[in-house]
Write a structure and sequence with these properties.
globular, Maf protein, binds inosine 5'-triphosphate, alpha/beta, about 200 residues, seven-stranded mixed sheet, about 35% helix, 7 strands
Length: about 200
């Protein structure tokens, strides 16, 4: 009996539209656990400004599917720092480019509450406009100084609660993916994707 679904001829393959190779490598590592293959489509999507990262991901995935006409995922993520009212949140990419790790550490100078979380939304859409979003969160704290050269973005200043004293920047991709926001959202996506195709 053939396992190919004629309405969905791609098998367990998904196309990840992103410009960030680190995100893609994390996705490849996580989705492999579920036998879902992933290919990267390096393409810029419009980054609208919105307080809600799910809205940003929804708009981006609709644009991506229109352009490539394949089943795709996009992912939007941000760092939310409690003492700063959730800043930089949906503006993480801009803030990282403008003030970097040093700027965030300066803003938290002398602040005792260093709790923070990363949030991720993975948005899936296929050419029939089936759109679905998956969420992942990791709670932790902002370290006192940047440590580690692994990962990307704010990884060197984020210590997840599951691994106190060790930043994401000091971890391998596989270690980070044990509890990262992105890995959690991708696992929810992978479980759904497998059952949807079954
Ligand atoms: P896309 O092409 O997929 O949009 P991007 O890097 O621009 O890639 P985002 O728009 O989701 O991704 O940007 C969120 C920013 O938040 C990102 O540039 C990092 O600075 C930060 N960030 C998100 N996830 C992170 C993670 O796992 N580790 C460290 N920093 C992260």
């Amino acid at each position: 009996m053939s396992t190919i679904n004629k309405n969905f001829p791609y098998g367990r393959l998904i196309f990840f539209v992103t410009e960030n190779a680190h995100k893609f490598n994390e996705a490849r590592s996580v989705l492999a656990e579920y036998n879902v293959a992933v290919a990267m489509i390096k393409m810029r999507t419009l980054e609208v400004q919105d307080d809600d990262i799910e809205n940003i991901a929804r708009i981006r995935v609709l644009q991506a599917v229109r352009e490539v006409n394949l089943p795709v995922i996009v992912e939007d993520a941000g760092l939310f720092i409690d003492a700063l009212g959730g800043f930089p949140g949906p503006y993480s990419s801009y803030v990282y480019r403008k003030i970097g790790l040093g700027g965030i550490l300066k803003l938290l100078n002398g602040v005792n509450d260093r709790s923070a979380k990363f949030k991720s939304v993975v948005a899936f859409c296929d050419p029939n406009n089936n759109l679905k979003c998956f969420h992942g969160i990791v709670e932790g704290r902002i370290s006192l100084e940047a440590r580690g050269s692994g990962g990307f973005g704010f990884d060197p200043i984020f210590e997840p609660n599951e691994s106190p004293g060790k930043t994401f920047g000091e971890m391998t991709t596989e270690e980070k993916c044990r509890f990262s926001h992105r890995a959690r959202a991708l696992r929810e996506f992978a479980k759904w994707y497998r059952s949807w195709q079954a």
